Automatic annotation (TrEMBL):
Protein's GO biological process: peptide transport
GO cellular component: plasma membrane
Domain (ABC transporter): residue spans on this chain: 3-253
Family the entry assigns: Belongs to the ABC transporter superfamily.
Name this polypeptide is given: ABC transporter ATP-binding protein
Length: 318
């Protein structure tokens, strides 16, 4: 097993309330595998990713849980050892490259820093490796573009630079936090294809985070559906689309626009009623669920193993 997250809790403390951003998350990831983590905004996907990197921002705190990477619990590693691991063995592509890249340094200086910090290369060696990496991610005229500042590049080019920085060290695990959200459909497809090709070339695993099931379906072998800080269903990608078990997963699938409905004037997309709100007891999705029972509002649902690779938290199957 490459990565194993179990019973992870991450809470944010405010003056008069506690926000339970991640509330008992569990999942695992095999070497060379791609797992898609999907759910609506605010469900805890990005905080889960930042927990793996040990970069949870204040006032957030990892309350409890275990995150094993190559059989080491990274939550127990000393800070210096974690710094060596972060960016070397585990890399992350952040959601917005414009805020993730430093605007006062050229993209070359920022990629070179990765090589110099993790491998101790000279400035000349780091620059040569950086140009090679920019070419690998499909940036034309890399010798000239390496001197450009982030604001001088398009959104798609900036995202390619982020991928180049993340993959410069040939990590075993890449965490991609909604890397295609701000891109148009054509560039989105190019970035996904690039990530798939580099994954095969570098033999790495990917944790791909998105709110878009159609995007995740193109890249992930398995999908974990997240709601209100918990994984509510997990299965192989084909199984999720063919046989969704949790009402929330069903709602996400029904909300996907379909080409056959484009010219139907009366057709409306099905939306999930209500909004995600914290509750003290029972299933977090119960207030929005059309299939809820009385027990759903009183007790947390049990974990049901539907098949060898399909799990769901729901009272409907007990």
């Amino acid at each position: 097993m490459l990565l194993e997250v179990s019973d992870l809790y991450v809470w944010f403390y405010k003056k008069r309330e506690i926000i339970k951003a991640v509330n008992g998350v569990f999942f695992s990831l095999l070497p060379k595998e791609t797992l898609g983590l999907v759910g609506e905004s605010g469900c805890g996907k990005s905080i889960t990713a930042l927990s793996i990197m040990r970069l949870v921002p204040a006032p957030g705190e990892i309350i409890k849980g275990k995150i094993y990477f190559l059989n080491k619990n990274i939550l127990e590693l000393p800070s210096k050892e974690m710094q060596k691991l972060r960016g070397r063995e585990i890399s992350m592509i952040f959601q917005d490259p414009m805020t993730a890249l430093n605007p006062v340094f050229t993209i070359g200086e920022q990629i070179e820093e990765v090589y110099r910090y993790h491998f101790g290369l000279s400035k000349k060696q780091a620059r040569e490796r950086s140009i090679e990496m920019l070419k690998k991610v499909g940036i034309p005229n890399a010798e000239d573009r390496i001197n450009a500042y982030p604001h001088q590049l398009s959104g798609g080019m900036r995202q390619r630079v982020m991928i180049a920085m993340a993959l410069a060290t040939h990590p075993k695990l890449l965490i991609a936090d909604e890397p295609t959200t701000a891109l148009d459909v054509t560039i989105q497809a190019q970035v996904l294809e690039l990530m798939l090709n580099l994954k095969k070339e570098m033999n790495m695993a990917i944790l791909f985070i998105s709110h878009d099931l159609t995007v995740v379906a193109q890249i992930a072998e398995r999908i974990a559906v997240m709601y209100a800080g918990k994984i509510v269903e997990m299965a192989e990608t084909v199984e999720i689309f063919r046989n969704p078990m949790h009402p929330y997963t069903e709602g996400l699938l029904e909300a996907i626009p379909r080409i056959e409905h484009v010219f139907e004037e009366k057709h409306r997309l099905k939306a999930i009623n209500g909004e995600m709100v914290p509750i003290s007891t029972g299933c977090a999705f119960a207030p929005r669920c059309g299939k809820k029972r009385s027990i759903c509002l009183k007790q947390l649902p049990p974990l049901k193993k539907v098949s060898s690779n399909h799990w769901v938290y729901c009272w409907l199957y007990e």
